[in-house]
Amino acid sequence: MKRALSFCMIAVAVTGCTQFPDLDHTQTGALDAAEYPALVPIEPLLAQANTAGADPVQTQDNLDSRLAGLRARANALRGTVLTDAEKRRLETGLR
Predict the structure, then answer these.
(1) Is 20 helix (H, G, I), strand (E, B) or coil?
(2) Cα-flanking dihedrals φ and ψ of residue 18, to 5°?
(3) What pLDDT score was predicted for residue 9?
(4) H or E element, residue 87
(5) Can you tell me the distance from the alpha carbon of 73 to that of 79, in angstroms, rounded to the nearest whole number?
(6) DSSP H or E run through 73
(7) In whole angstroms, what is the distance from residue 1 CA to residue 7 CA?
(8) pLDDT tens digit string along 45-88?
(9) Within its chain, how far is the Cα of 89 from the centroid?
(10) What is the distance of C-alpha 95 from the center of its chain?
(11) Angstrom distance (rounded) from CA 72 to CA 66
(12) Using CA atoms, how far apart are residues 27 and 34, in angstroms rounded to an integer?
């Protein structure tokens, strides 16, 4: 219990030393004169949000084809870069 109290006192002391930004003069006259936004019913917005979405089947097909293409590129890069003659030449140069 004593340890928890000490921790709380340290936490309060540290947060008391925090520098807060100066927010006194951040609101402009134009912002003061601006009108409030119009309130609209939320039901049409929710209905639109629920219907507008990606087709999961089409998305999966697109991802599968992209994955196949990336795997094909990776397999093509796995091949050897040097010919046998170039490998022999490098091996003799390294000895």
Answers:
(1) coil
(2) -70, 135
(3) 75
(4) helix 84-94
(5) 11
(6) helix 56-77
(7) 10
(8) 888 877 767 788 999 999 999 999 999 999 988 888 888 999 88
(9) 47
(10) 49
(11) 10
(12) 11
Q: Assess contact for 82 and 90: CB atoms under 8 A.
A: yes
The values of phi and psi at residue 37, to 5°, are -65, 155
Interatomic CA distance for residues 2 and 4, integer angstroms: 5
Determine if residue 62 is left, alpha or beta; phi over 0 gives left, psi from -120 to 50 gives alpha, anything else beta: alpha
Locate tokens 């936490």: which residue?
Answer: 11
Q: 3-class DSSP state for residue 85?
A: helix
Q: How far does the chain reach from its first CA to its final CA, in angstroms?
A: 71
Q: In this predicted model, what pLDDT tens digit does every residue of 25-49 receive, in sequence order?
A: 788 888 889 999 999 899 988 888 7
Number of residues assigned to the chain: 95
Element (H, E) at 5: helix 2-16
